[in-house]
């Protein structure tokens, strides 16, 4: 079978050239880092098209164009691919290091093209530079190999390892092959394998990019679906999920919930408008969270009501924490229309009982206790559960 490497390189170049505008148009609506990263990738495709077209025309054009310019363009494209992927992975792009690898590799290639012509040396130098870029990608991508790691990142890892294998094969051929210096366009197995892979790589890598973007977008959507937009805390949906999980995972003999409601919040809204009320709500959420341990869970169940899940906590410690929250909240001042304002809260406390079938029973008792606190005059803590000595948890001090 005769494989024409010039045609192969031109097909690869054409493919990359056509893919670039399609990809950029299809991802126009993307935002943030994903947009920046895909824009760089679009440019990379154009650079690769140019680089491979110049390489493919080696027998028709001067060495300056087909070696010096082509390798310069390809080095920029490899450095930019690394930058785009590192951006998408959320790690620092290391532009200085990328530039150092690219420029030193290119200067080496120019030296062994123009000053002391040596084709194998050029391949070795290009391989070392690519190895540098590859390490900067493989290191952050190593997390994908863990159980449950990102599928999109694994796809990208395969694409990169495929490129590395192509270069490795070519270097081995140069070192151990029969033909002393086969040249770029000689149809040797190493050259053919690498050229076929290079022609297909724009498509594989673009799919990898889009899959990675898709995973990021889905994670962001999941986060938004679980977050209360005003306070940044968990919303009701996420709280229900967490309560269910904690109920199943923790001991049936400990665990408490606090239902917190701001007293007379309507008066804040009436005096300062909804925007003023919103600022107060956000400040209180921050204040409450500063009194909690890392494994306590705070969320807004709606309106001016918050729920706190306290794993591994008994009734006495839950009451102590509730009291601490009540005192902390009454000390939070929010300036509305130039006047410092404070509010108070009522807190209903419930602790897990052996007969509770699910977290709902616990939350309903906390809710009833909250109404008891409201009926008893507000600005207080109440519980319907019998207090009993429990192992003392380390109730966090408020840090704000
Ligand atoms: N600013 C703001 N206000 C909200 C939000 N959700 C609910 N509210 C307001 O919270 C107030 C709740 O009023 P009520 O249920 O009468 O309770 P309250 O005035 O706090 O009185 P008590 O709970 O009985 O002490 C209403 O004015 C709602 O409009 C919100 O997201 N932002």
Automatic annotation (TrEMBL):
Its EC number is 2.7.7.65. The chain crosses the membrane at residues 6-26, 38-55, 61-85, 97-115, 121-139, 155-176, 196-213. Keywords: Membrane, Transmembrane, Transmembrane helix. It catalyses: 2 GTP = 3',3'-c-di-GMP + 2 diphosphate. Residues 253-386 form the GGDEF domain. It holds the Pfam family GGDEF. PANTHER family: DIGUANYLATE CYCLASE DGCM-RELATED, REGULATORY COMPONENTS OF SENSORY TRANSDUCTION SYSTEM. This is diguanylate cyclase. The lineage of its organism: Bacteria, Pseudomonadati, Pseudomonadota, Gammaproteobacteria, Lysobacterales.
